[in-house]
Amino acid sequence: MHRPAPATAPRTRLARVLACAAVPVMLVAVGCSDSDDGKKQDSGASSSAATPSGKQSSSPSVAPAKYAKLPDPCKALAQKTIEDLVPKAKSKSGTAGKSTDVSSQGTCSWNGLDDKGVKGSQYRWLDVSFKRYGSDAAIGSGDQRAGKEYARLVTASKAADGAKNVKATAVSGIGDEATAISYDLNKTDEDFKYAVIVARTANAVVLLDYNGAGYQGADAPDAGDLMKDAQSAAKEAVASVATANGAKQ
């Protein structure tokens, strides 16, 4: 049950809770990979090494990775998408996360408060993360490695700390495979609705987190609408991976 804030609540309290709300509850920005992943070859060509007898022995070959780079996370979504999903965004250009290898991983987030006066306010947070895996004969193809990360993120998203009413559903039309996860979470004394999309396209993984809450007496956002918008944005983010690698959309 959403608990509206008193209409006379000081604006200073709202500022404090928004500072807390701006931190995503699930910082699963697509990480957890080999630290030197960006340096590993994507070709998957078989390697050979000289044996003591002078003969050459070949390692098993793996399929080459489809994608060699990632899009700029802060430009992966159209400006209209940002305006629609995050009204009154503090920065329409987004806030990029730190990455030591932008060709292998990156993230960007947007947040904003749409103040509707006596009708209350609507807060929205949007975060999109990308992770790319290269092919390596010793540990598997890029697609296989991305598949493992995809499964890990789905499990982690469903187990978000404090999440209630968790639902996970496989969705089609977003990359090679995708799962939509929704849940409720109470933080900063407000009821937040979450819509998370985890998707894999070949050797790249996309994680999109879209959530929001109503402040100062406003209703919580509709979970169905939130998920619909999240899926649309995730499809756009997945398409940006192909575009970054020269594919025409």
What features would you describe in this structure?
InterPro entries: DUF3558. Residues 51-61 have a biased composition (Polar residues). Residues 1-21 form the signal peptide. Residues 32-67, 87-106 are annotated as: Disordered. Keywords: Signal. With 249 residues, this protein is of the alpha+beta class. The chain has 4 helices and 9 strands; from the N terminus they run αββαβββαββββα. The chain has a 7-stranded antiparallel beta sheet with strand order 3-4-5-9-8-7-6. The longest helix is centred in the C-terminal third of the chain and has 22 residues, at 223-244. It is globular and about 65 Å long.
The rounded distance between the terminal residues' Cα atoms is 43 Å
| Rg calculated over all Cα atoms | 21 Å
Q: Supply the number of helical segments.
A: 4
Global mean pLDDT: 84
Helix content: 10-25%
Write the H/E string, N to C. HEEHEEEHEEEEH
Please identify the structural class as seen in this structure.
alpha+beta
The oligomeric state is single chain
Please describe the biggest sheet, giving its number of strands, its sense, and whether it closes into a barrel: 7 strands, antiparallel
**Percent of residues in beta strands:** 25-35%
In short:
Residues 1-21 form the signal peptide. This protein is α+β, with helices and mostly antiparallel strands. Helices cover 23% and strands 30% of the residues.
